[in-house]
Write a structure and sequence with these properties.
Layout lengths: L1 H14 L21 E13 L2 E14 L6 E4 L1 E6 L5 E7 L1 E4 L5 E11 L5 E10 L4 E11 L5 E10 L5 E6 L5 E2 L3 H6 L6
Antiparallel strand pairs: 1-2, 2-3, 2-4, 3-6, 4-5, 5-7, 6-7, 7-8, 8-9, 9-10, 10-11, 10-12
Length: 193
């Protein structure tokens, strides 16, 4: 009977090598797996300051590096910035964009379109936003259209993040601007008060 018991025990140890006295090293990933990434489809990424939503990023595709930079690539970009009361302030659309690990800067590129809460429209090929200094900048072509239909074109932009103040650095090749009904608007007393 003892012989049968030891035969079964020996058979089980052969079938289940974990029972043996020799320890094997756990499996490890290959050295070629250096950068882990997280890929998401049809996702939303939001940044909060306490209970206050600061911005919301929607994209069909997001890729987040799990390495030390942990920046996010989004394609295409639908970015909504909220004001201090939680209302939609500015909307940004672009072909692609990235944000840094702290999520306090954005760079968007490719058919960039911005619409502010007061209906100002900004078009460019590249815009950079920094939450730290509350600025939006670019060195590329930019076009700004006001609520009144004024269109200003040029190269290079420095603006505050609400676009209530902005400067274009150089005239555009096709002219600097178009101001419809400018004479009539100037003649109206309340237009520039």
């Amino acid at each position: 009977m003892k012989a049968i018991f030891y035969s079964i025990l020996l058979g089980l140890c052969v079938m289940f090598p974990g029972c043996s006295d020799t320890e094997q090293a756990p499996p490890r990933s290959k050295s070629s797996a250096r950068d882990l990434v997280q890929e998401l489809e049809n996702s939303v990424l939001s940044l909060y300051d306490g209970a206050q939503k600061v911005w919301e990023l929607k994209a069909e595709y997001m890729r987040k590096s799990m390495g030390d930079s942990a920046h996010v690539l989004a394609v295409p970009v639908v970015l909504t910035l909220f004001d201090s009361l939680g209302r939609t302030g500015t909307k940004v659309l672009a072909d692609s964009g990235t944000t840094n690990a702290a999520k306090d800067t954005f760079t968007v590129w490719g058919n960039v379109f911005v619409r502010t809460e007061d209906s100002l429209k900004v078009q460019s090929e590249l815009l950079c936003w920094s939450q730290g200094n509350h600025r939006v900048t670019t060195d590329t072509y930019v076009q700004i259209e006001t609520r009144n239909g004024d269109v200003i074109r040029g190269r290079g932009l420095d603006a505050n993040e609400s676009f209530s103040r902005w400067t274009i650095h150089e005239r555009g090749e096709e002219g600097f601007g178009f101001f419809p009904n400018f004479k009539e608007r100037v003649e109206q007393e309340d237009e520039f008060l």
